[in-house]
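Tetratricopeptide repeat protein: structure tokens wanted.
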Amino acid sequence: MSYSQKALDFLEEGNIEEFNKQYNLALHHDSDEMVYSLAEELYSYGFTNQAKELYEKLLKKFPDEDELRTDIADILISEGNTDEALEQLSKISKDSPAYLQSLMVQADLYQTQELFEVSREKLLEAKKIEPDEDIITFALAELFYTMGEYNKAIPQYLTLIKKGIMNLSSVNLVERVGISYANDSNFENAIGYLKQIKTVDMSSDVKFETAFTYLQLKEYDQAIDIFKELRDSDPQYATLYPYLGQALETTNKIEDAYKVLQEGLSVDQYNEKLYLATARAALKLSETDDALKYLQEGNKIDPDDIEIVLELSNLLVFREDFDDNVKLLNTYIENHELDPQFYWNLAISYDKLDNLKLAYKNYLAAKPYFEDNADFLKEAALFFREYGDKDNSYELLSRYVKMQPNDEEAAFMLEEYLD
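Answer:
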């Protein structure tokens, strides 16, 4: 028995002391073929230092064996020594039998460094050399997938699938095509592939993508079923909760949606959008106290989320908490973070607080933005009328009556201006 085989036997037994002895004997006494075989086995076991030592010994003896350079480069990359790896690979000439492999190693290296364009160049060069090589096609597909260029990834995956290759390097190619179509907003094609996969064989990410795709196709029952299965199998998958809540709300299961969104908050307490969705569900159930609590919490987490600020402001106006609304919105106006609805809500609040001057100022500020909003036109026209600004009152009433000709009260007030 060779020293290499003895070393491997001791390694499998967990006898590291004897393994080291036999390894050193193999390094100095075994044939080149046995040393290379031992290096391959040790690399597969994760003993990269020893494998690299063996490869380097062989490279000194056979400096033209470029395959050894790619083996060493692989190990250097795994160790994070990318510059040394590239130095090894740069010594491989284009006419070398190992040049194709060196391109693949370089492409992988540049991809891990997120130098995607350089990685693409290496793979396209490899593709010219071996246009029908499946592993190159797969590498290109994976690169495009990682880059988010799904429309370019899909043809590469389909080329492999048409050859009958459904899995490669532990990657399900049907999943990849389905998710790529979904991310490219081609939901009809996406679901055609995703539904071929049994739910029990799906990862959490694939379950989510499948349910999300059904949601986009308005196939709510299927979306709900898969979202629930994902929740049961992976309750910490926080992203599912807003979408499951959305699907349940759309099917008028508001109470169920509310419970699901609350579950989501127990999983992800720092997701401001989840607080917003939960608050909106609470409002649909007339749970205004809870809605207020959720919106205030969401606002604390992300004060810059204007959507939450608007929802919170609208609720404060509805609850007639006018002082709180003024305090809230003035903070944003002082920081020049404006939304037209701020002006309208402030106008209402100041009017109710009998600060007519500031109410007038905010109605004027809101006016250009709501010229097609019948509710605003009538409300603001009545305010301007009481404030004594007949010109603005007349202008807004005229526009309102054209939109709502059956409003006799408004028509009568308008006629008063014409008399």
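Strands lie at 167-168, 171-172. The mean pLDDT is 93.

Cheers.
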